[in-house]
């Protein structure tokens, strides 16, 4: 299935990203000058719409109706998964017991999780009805056409539904939380903001100048400073901060840093610790400095916002396309002004981290 997530496959349906990006752009363009709005909420709606479109072929358009449409409770879903996952050996029991515990907040979480998964399987059933054999134009088409490599059997509707649901849960909140934090850093680091503006002005056309659809191909290599801004945001505030356990399978165990770890042990590395190791990043590891990626030619493999190895994030290319396209479209076309330019960053950590509270801004359209 991983070929469905390759850059080449994803770029074939780049128009799907473009449709939702255009709505994000228009919503922000329509903000009257000086009107305060929450940029974090705007990008969250974009991320939810684009990921659910990719996963279920459903245009939920939460961007189109911000008043009436509540964003679905994906963070609740992640929180409950993290709580249960903390003691994974107790999983079958904790689910059974959890369902019976008379704790209103837990029951509310479980209820919202149930509603979300019911909706997801409804969307998938609709898409299965509309799917034409051989069609491979979307992620869901690819799932419906996928075959088990050993048996040649297709995925069952329940398996398709659970995969598509996993894309939504794993993809929407991670993307929006990453974008929220990226914009926070840029809006609170004047030097980085100025250099980013310079690079984008020189390389990306304004929407008005015929650049409505920013094509992803070739964009990364034209924008080294922009890429450094994104990498530095991933480094300083990775959103996926849960431990990512791996089991030692070698019968002889492994030796890591002078410690012997026997077979059967679960070993975890937490991205936050790796990304803030002062021995590697230096005493200024808690400062947002995109230059460190350029001056020291550090490889992106030194950090692990998407995990590492066989179980690393399958949606990494989708995230990369979304983040770069959103940043280019908004930063190039609007001067974004934070309401509180001295706001201290606080993080909400519910398994997937995000900026606490809104990111209140005003915008002014750039003319050149
Ligand atoms: C900035 C956005 C994202 C971040 C930071 C992120 C991060 C991660 C991380 C750290 C993991 C665990 C990897 C490991 O265990 O080593 C993961 C797994 C996963 N991600 Fe993402 N992700 C993002 C976006 C997406 C998107 C857009 C999708 C799909 C549409 C997606 C789908 C998945 C799936 C299905 C898994 C489970 C893979 C497995 O267990 O084999 N992610 N992600």
Automatic annotation (TrEMBL):
UniProt name for this protein: Cytochrome P450
UniProt key word Ligase: no
Protein's organism: Trichoderma guizhouense
Cofactor(s) named in the record: heme
Chain residues that bind heme: 313
Family: Belongs to the cytochrome P450 family.
Keyword DNA-binding among UniProt keywords: no
Stored InterPro entries: Cyt_P450, Cyt_P450_CS, Cyt_P450_E_grp-I, Cyt_P450_sf, Cytochrome_P450_monoxygenase
GO MF terms, alphabetically ordered: heme binding; iron ion binding; monooxygenase activity; oxidoreductase activity, acting on paired donors, with incorporation or reduction of molecular oxygen
Key words, A-Z: Heme, Iron, Metal-binding, Monooxygenase, Oxidoreductase
């Amino acid at each position: 299935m991983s070929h469905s997530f390759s850059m080449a496959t994803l770029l074939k349906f780049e128009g799907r990203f473009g449709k939702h990006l255009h709505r994000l752009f228009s919503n922000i363009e329509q903000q009257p000058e000086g009107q305060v709005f929450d940029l974090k909420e705007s990008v969250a709606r974009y991320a939810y719409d684009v990921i659910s479109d990719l996963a279920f072929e459903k245009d939920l358009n939460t961007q189109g109706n911000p008043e009436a449409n509540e964003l679905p409770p994906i963070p609740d879903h992640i929180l409950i998964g993290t709580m249960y996952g903390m003691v994974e050996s107790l999983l079958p029991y904790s689910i059974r017991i959890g369902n019976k515990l008379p704790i209103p907040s837990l029951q509310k979480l479980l209820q919202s999780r149930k509603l979300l998964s019911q909706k997801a399987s409804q969307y998938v059933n609709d898409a299965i009805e509309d799917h034409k054999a051989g069609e491979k134009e979307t992620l869901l088409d690819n799932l419906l056409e996928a075959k088990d490599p050993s048996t040649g059997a297709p995925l069952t509707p329940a398996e398709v539904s659970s995969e598509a649901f996993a894309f939504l849960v794993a993809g929407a909140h991670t993307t929006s939380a990453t974008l929220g934090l990226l914009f926070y850093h840029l809006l609170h680091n004047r030097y980085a903001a100025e250099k980013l503006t310079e690079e984008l002005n020189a390389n990306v056309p304004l929407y008005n100048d015929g650049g409505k659809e920013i094509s992803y191909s070739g964009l990364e290599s034209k924008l080294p400073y922009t890429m450094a801004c994104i990498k530095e945001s991933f480094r300083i505030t990775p959103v996926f901060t849960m431990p990512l356990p791996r089991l030692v399978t070698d019968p002889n165990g492994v030796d890591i840093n002078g410690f012997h770890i026997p077979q059967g042990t679960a070993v975890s590395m937490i991205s936050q610790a790796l990304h803030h190791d002062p021995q590697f990043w230096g005493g200024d590891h808690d400062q947002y400095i995109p230059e460190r990626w350029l001056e020291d030619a550090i490889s992106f493999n030194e950090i692990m916002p998407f995990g590492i190895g066989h179980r690393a994030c399958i949606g990494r290319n989708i995230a990369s396309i979304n983040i770069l396209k959103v940043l280019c479209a908004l930063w190039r076309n609007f001067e974004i002004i934070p309401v509180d330019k001295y706001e201290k960053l606080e993080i909400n950590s519910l398994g997937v981290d995000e900026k606490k509270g809104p990111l209140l801004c005003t915008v002014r359209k750039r003319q050149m």
